[in-house]
Batch of 3 targets.
Target 1
Amino acid sequence: MLQRDYTTSQLDVLEAEAIHVMREVAAEFERPCLLFSGGKDSIVMLRVAEKAFWPAPIPFPLMHVDTGHNFPEVIDFRDRRVAELNARLVVASVQASIDAGRVMEETGRRASRNRLQTTTLLDAIEEHEYDAVFGGARRDEEKARAKERVFSFRDDFGQWDPKNQRPELWNLYNTRIRKGEHIRVFPLSNWTELDIWHYIQREGIEIPSIYFAHTRKVFERDGMLLADAEVVQRGEDEPIFEAVVRYRTVGDMTCTGAVASTATTVEQIIDEVAATRITERGATRADDRASEAAMEDRKKEGYF
Amino acid sequence: MDILRFATAGSVDDGKSTLIGRLLFDSKAIFEDQLEAVERTSRDRGTEYTDLSLLTDGLRAEREQGITIDVAYRYFATPRRKFIIADTPGHIQYTRNMVTGASTADLAIILIDARKGVLEQSRRHAFLTTLLRVPHLVLAVNKMDLVDYSEARFEEIREEFTAFASKLNASDLTFIPISALHGDNVVSRSENMPWYEGTSLLHHLEHVHIASDRNLVDVRFPVQYVIRPHNATNQSLHDYRGYAGQVAGGVLKPGDEVMHLPSGLTTRIRSIDTFDGALDEAFPPMSVTLRLEDDIDISRGDMICRPHNQPQVAQEIDAMVAWMTDGVRLQSRSKLVLKHSTRTARTVVRDLQYRLDVNTLHRDESATSLGLNEIGRVTLRTTQPLFVDDYARNRQTGGFILIDEATNSTVGAGMIVDAH
Ligand SMILES: Nc1nc2c(ncn2[C@@H]2O[C@H](COP(=O)(O)OP(=O)(O)OP(=O)(O)O)[C@@H](O)[C@H]2O)c(=O)[nH]1
Ligand SMILES: [Mg+2]
């Protein structure tokens, strides 16, 4: 009997850790919310939330910061998933922030609402008095994220101070804050891109169609394939062509690149991700290419 | 496939981050764009070689100062295992971040610069890793390229460290001579050190046996959250009451007789529920939901254990405390918030028994307070009973954090040595 080997597979360990984190938040905070963008990480996070509280419903609302530049397939998916779960969705709109004069729309070919999202997000957190906000960020995504705690303290201005993070030992999380401050919580901190895909496969989780190979009108910029769409500003010198592509990450249409791919199943995506030699953000995100410390700087301002 | 969590430790500039960079690079866990970015930065700074430490030193301030400030977590997998790496800072000022990284580690690699030998900070980190009960230690003697790959130098350091380690509770200690910069003995055995008969570092990481490090004997289930669906449309859920939590010790099975603390009432496990169906058994680190045969008033912070194997129910606790702030000092009568498993209580320091000199392990009983990075043995009294075990027996039910009520900062980490 004692011969049994009580090893636990990596996905089970990661899932157990994420469930523990979610329950800790539900137990210790008054007004948590979960950021749900319809991207693969937040889809996995939502599934973990479903598991953490089952058979009870998820005890907090979902929030989407809608830039107005999202892929329509992803918005459809978002709404379908929310309806299925009978969850409450709060949409924080960047367009509304622009209309209210809280932020200024960038202009020019590379205009993006990526950075503007931070203001919309922080305003929404303040308006709804959220004290804990779940994000699907993973430490393997980017080198500044690799430094962040699972429970990441944000001051009154939503700022992250990377040089002064709270020690975080074992699985004991310090959840104490003052009014106006909040904690960003990252239950998937220790998952890698491959773990996410293996989990999607194992759980049979549905994902938006743009993750799979499809034919799309695109144009090339900085070695990336951007979608041809009304919201994406394109120059005369950037001709459109058709290509078979898929998305590795889902962000704004203006700054998220597609990769050439023929993967039409999750199995094929896993093979592709396992063989790739370029990180997902390196391959697909113009916003991270701006400078060496682009992510750190945005995070300090209160970005996801 | 299982997971091995390991942390680096050692003095500033001993090569921790370079080693992690090398490990990632040689095991092909580095992507082209990451490597290009690091090569570009190295070139811009006029470094002749590619500075692999830049792969983990991701903060602006770290790159500017060439040191690690906070833990970086990195991931890689070989066909045998998935690895979660915590690359920790060597600088004394950031010891609390090292402690953060080491607290969850199955294994720690303590680096020593072969030229410098065992430094005070190497001793401090070695001591901290044993205090935190990291079950496996590797002493990596680094920069062997700078001492002509000398076996004599390696042996000298091995002896010096062994003498120090004999005073610690170091359970499993392995010595490996390496060059993080050039890759000797990191992923494969080096031809520069034919006298070394052990395995490469990666081989050791892949094979070290960790399954028996968990406590599968003492059943401990700290109740984290009570699940009550209150579902109006689904009658079958109307009376559902489940106790959710992460198993901290032992193996639980349906039908087992269990005891609830603090009430002392006993009942049986009716079922072990998960979203994916009921389970035949649960053990660490699984997150599950228990339903019990009898209706007992149970809430967050309570403990479920076995009638004949209970944790201490204690309000007086003796613990080794690592102090992590320069804001206030820990001293007799300090009032703090203590978080232990799923229970939070207020606590007052009754007595600082001694402060430990991490260099000599001398106990200074005349000390009256602990400052930043100091370690001492304290007696605490809590406002509520806690359900504790010795840290040596269970890291989950033996560890706690201390929080300063004025600033809400985490200011101390405690490891229970005795309770009553
Ligand atoms: N010659 C030689 N140099 C090395 C070796 N390993 C590291 N170095 C150099 O030592 C210096 C410090 O290396 P880091 O990896 O940043 O040291 P660290 O231990 O991470 O330092 P902190 O994190 O700040 O404590 C760098 O210049 C490295 O290139 C080695 O094996 N041989
Ligand atoms: Mg370092």
Note: Chain A has two domains: 10-195+293-301, 209-288.
Target 2
Amino acid sequence: MANRTVRFSIYRYDPDKDEKPYMQDLTVELEPTDRKLLDALVRIKAMDDSLSFRRSCREGVCGSDAMNINGKNGLACLIEIDSLTWPITLRPLPGLPVVRDLIVDMTQFFKQYHSITPYLVNNDPPPERERLQSPEEREELDGLYECILCACCSTSCPSFWWNPDKFVGPAGLLAAYRFLADTRDQATSERLDNLEDPYRLFRCHTIMNCVDVCPKGLNPTRAISNIKDMMVRRAV
Amino acid sequence: MSVPVRKFDAVIVGAGGAGLRAAIQLSEAGLKTAVLSKVFPTRSHTVAAQGGVAASLGNSEEDHWHWHMYDTVKGSDWLGDQDAIEFMCRKANEVVVELEHYGMPFDRTDAGKIYQRPFGGHMSNFGEKPVRRSCAAADRTGHAMLHAMYQRNVKVNTQFFVEWMALDLVRDEEGAVVGVTAMEMETSEIVMFHAKAVLFATGGAGRIFHSSTNAFINTGDGVGMAARAGIPLEDMEFWQFHPTGVAGAGVLITEGVRGEGGILRNSDKERFMERYAPNAKDLASRDVVSRAMVTEINEGRGCGPNKDHVLLDITHLPPETILKRLPGIREIAIQFAGVDPIKEPIPVVPTCHYQMGGIPTNYNGEVVVPSATSKSEVVSGFYAAGECACASVHGANRLGTNSLLDLLVFGKSAGESMVDFIKSQPAAHRPLPANACDFTLSRVDRLNNQRGGANVHEARLAMQRAMQKHCGVFRFKKLLEEGVQQISEIAGQVAQTEIADKSRVFNTARLEALELDNLIEVAKATMVSANARTESRGAHVRDDAPDTTERPNGRDDQNWLKHTLWFREGNRLDYKPVNLKPLSVETIALKKRAY
Ligand SMILES: Cc1cc2nc3c(=O)[nH]c(=O)nc-3n(C[C@H](O)[C@H](O)[C@H](O)COP(=O)(O)OP(=O)(O)OC[C@H]3O[C@@H](n4cnc5c(N)ncnc54)[C@H](O)[C@@H]3O)c2cc1C
Ligand code: SF4
Ligand code: SF4
Ligand code: FES
């Protein structure tokens, strides 16, 4: 691969100096080793140190660099530059307040995560050794525990955009189901009570945007429908 | 300028595995604790750990903490302190079981117990044959562990300051630690955190090298802050190069891949580790495997058009095993190497991975420094745990899965020590010195007003390239000497970095410049310590200390069985003895390290 020049259009906003947000058009010369979108962003930042974005692991496990890339939420460190059409248009995650450039205020997102009792509840005195769980029981947690809290899903969910304070959103609900599905957890009915509400769970209209964008290939919609099933089962 | 002061019983800097484990202890004790982190806790780099956490649970075959201890001492090439190593290996089962009780989704055996896999250097019966000791949640152990511990902290109501960067350690006239200064990233506000006890759990500094498995945020902040506050740094010449970073990308492929049966091959498709480590083969200790790989490459048996890497082959494993035990690795190989490991081997090279040295502590997590009367005097109010600390359990080379264990054991013991210390203190905090924040303010002012200075990106790149070339897998006397000179020149540039962005809002340019101030301290300490140690030991191997009969592997116990201490002031070195005396068992006697 030879050096290549790529065109970008990037959302810029620094409340300390800009009256309002604007889109900045720019071109960058990339090195052959620049594969992922994050490599390109780092390259741009080396020229213009004011471009602001979060990043850490650069391998898709920390969940820092979620952004809206050509209209779709994703992690900059996992998206291949060459898979994108030009100009590569980057915006902050939709639906959350913008702090600066590509950095959004995640308070509301984490508030919802924190609202689902995101920890194992087991009130028996802890045994001396591990609590037992069969491989099959453990398998129930696959596809749930891997969430990296990147918020790609919740910020692509229309129901979350309209009611970020009331609807838990796909990430929070996936986490809720992660504990409901854990054979070691004893708070099933409290957890279901916590979600039995016209908004918290039932605002999900199965639009599936969340499944479409999750960079870890997780399926919040399935988790949501499993929770709904549990509610129905306990009602009868 | 007056800086707002906030008072806490304890301040923990860092919300990775070590910081979160300590925080559980303090919150459960009901102490007013602030946990500061540059990133949301679950974004800390512990999240990237893949292979597992060591504990001699013996769930699949017989195992014993004493065997684990033996392996760790041997792995450390006898530079680890045997009291701390015994402490860690004996505590392993307790802390891993606790983690399971917190909700960690470990994989399971058919009997429902925690699943364990073999890992490099972990053997049964004092070095006989590989043993299943690594407790794993697929190949996402760090992620599962970090989330479980964050969740536990939510349960016990720990108070987090997310996206706050600690800038400097504050000590009073007597040298006691009384707090840290920190910057809120969103607003650039600087605040003094006044505390009775401070724990540094800031993780590694792998970003001093050009090619690293470490995250962008792993910039050695705790180590840099400690050095600036007059604390010496221990054994900084010892850096682990992990054998299997994805060639070109640096992203890690866990040793768990070899634990599950993966094989390293050269351009002749030969399983070359059989020649270097007839017993342990691909599961020999990391330094041994990394050097074997570099030797293969240097002798022309590298793979690819540039013959610059070797291949990690798992194509012979059943696809089900790969999908079940190594799903994350498959994802990484596809994403970063462009190969599906079910069908094709993965191109890999040794990549900087782990810092064995750090802030000197004892096994209670207390920071210890030389004084007029002792080589290890406790610094009142100061604690360190995790990768930024040196207890020293890893010595000259860390075994895989022993770091996650270190986080749990020493995070917990540091937390316990802090609880005891705070409870023994008078109700009132020690007063802050009048000039507590001056140093921090002057650093930030200097940066904000610098004109005609060095570019942060360029200075950092120059440092990373110099470290890679002058202080890599194999070290050469001549290159080390030049490296000391080069790094000291680059340090001059770092003292004059300039940023264009002056915004007060989430100014990542300023944060990166402040991080570079820390990285360069780590780089200096590493170069100077490495240049001075004229033997080969563990991860530190020099051309002028080859393998001979008098000095097997080039190790010189007569002159160098001692810990290095680097002092920032005067770029000076001192040494202290290795503790060869365990807590309850016999000393594991010195011998030649072979696998
Ligand atoms: C890719 C990879 C895989 C690994 N796999 C394994 C494995 O399988 N088994 C094993 O035992 N070990 C493994 N290791 C090593 C191990 O993961 C690390 O050594 C360990 O996680 C470090 O944990 P920590 O708590 O010390 O630091 P980290 O998890 O790095 O956390 C550091 C914390 O400090 C905070 N911080 C840093 N500076 C500041 C500052 N100035 N102000 C405020 N906060 C700050 C950060 O925000 C973060 O919260 C692996 C390492 C890597 C890189
Ligand atoms: S399926 Fe439900 S949670 Fe997912 S995007 Fe649609 S409404 Fe949101
Ligand atoms: S479910 Fe997927 S998209 Fe949503 S927060 Fe978790 S990892 Fe991100
Ligand atoms: S940088 Fe961590 S997920 Fe992309």
Note: The helical segments of chain A are 37-47, 107-114, 135-139, 158-162, 169-180, 188-195, 209-213, 220-235.
Target 3
Amino acid sequence: MSITDKIVAGDIRAVARLIRDIDDMVPEAREVLKDLYPFTGRAYVVGITGAPGVGKSTLVDQMVTHLRKAEKTVGVLAVDPTSPFSGGAILGDRVRMQRHSMDEGVFIRSMATRGYFGGLTQSTKSAIDVLDAMGKDYILVETVGVGQDEIDIVRSADTTLIVLIPGMGDDIQALKAGILEVGDIFVINKADREGADRTVSDIRLMIEMDEKRYENGWKPPILTAQAVFDKGIREILDEVEKHATYLRSSTERQSGIKYEKVRSELSEMIKDKIVRDVLSDLIQSEEFEDAVQLVLQRKLDPYTACDNIVSKKLKPGNK
Amino acid sequence: MAKPGLDGHDRGARIIARAYRDAGFEVVYSGLHQTPEEIVQAAIQEDVDMIGLSSLAGAHMYLFPRVVELLKEKNANDIVVCGGGIFPEEDIPQLKKAGIKEIFTPGTPLTEVVKWVEEHVEPRSS
Ligand SMILES: Nc1nc2c(ncn2[C@@H]2O[C@H](COP(=O)(O)OP(=O)(O)O)[C@@H](O)[C@H]2O)c(=O)[nH]1
Ligand SMILES: [Mg+2]
């Protein structure tokens, strides 16, 4: 059986190994991904993002339970940050999802953001493709909503949940930059704590100020939840369903969204490959080191140094 | 890094997990009260190189070998299993015979624990 056949048949070990190879950028993994592509595009991908500790993993765990009750199979990708100091990571999201580890209809995988140039987005997207090809109905992707990479990951989800907790007043202001635009559904978790109503109205105000953007389309609902007590989960999944229906409701909109998605994913992928193939060689080259030295000694300005290298290295036919 | 058995303390496991992280490892921490079956399933889904088991509860003579046995059943016995915790001295040779590659007792310096892995666990995909 080829790796592709194994994955399509749902072989856990083959899936696990391929995701690892993707993460480690083993060249063969890319070939497998090409073969798998025809089997992708069926899963519904939900992104769950928010600050550390707001209850994302707990929420994912509950969503998995509800989806399983509805006889859906689920893949989970839980992304945690790599330590910038050591390059290592502690991936602890599984702790909240333990009870699903024996369920054959659930596949849970942790991933570290690692450090490479933009590689996270690409490897997470590829991992989504693998879980999709293995036949999971839903794929839940948990990320800590901080960096651009994380935002890009959730951007590739069909529906994105932004998870907040009561009393995040100032953080909400900060959210405006970037992450707000990708939120399809807002969840105020830990609503057992004081101040949930206030947070709901803060978010509502922010969404309403952006009225134009939601004019003919989807206006993000704001829900409250208590993930740890299994409250509000059904409602979240109902909204996910509604958002899915909304996406499907207009073929024009659907093809527009798809077009944008393919466009941005392909350009990301090209950027990624160029960065990986060219830049990683380049910064190890003598020329690069020379340029660094020249700039260091202030014999050359960095703009000229950059232009020199780029024009030399990126000329068509050159590599 | 997993914690089978019933005792509710994972401070030790967390400290070890942090030491590995600080040495550049990616550590999947899967939590307390896990059955050997759950641990093995998690290790396979995560495709790890090594399982570190931590136990204070005394059931290690059953739980640790059971993890090794299940890995064999699943054809995943290329995954190295280590253990840590408080054990009677005489249990250690038996655990090793059952396939636990190394046992770390309290007082082993963290640097030793990390170094052992660096020296004994080959990353499979390279
Ligand atoms: N009070 C309260 N605590 C919660 C709720 N949901 C999750 N938590 C707790 O918040 C902590 C962090 O949860 P976790 O799911 O790991 O957060 P993550 O870092 O966003 O994935 C845990 O101790 C959870 O038990 C909730 O609805 N109410
Ligand atoms: Mg989490």
Note: The pocket of guanosine-5'-diphosphate (ligand 1) is lined by residues A 50, 52-58, 93, 96, 189-190, 192-193, 226-228 (CB under 6 Å).
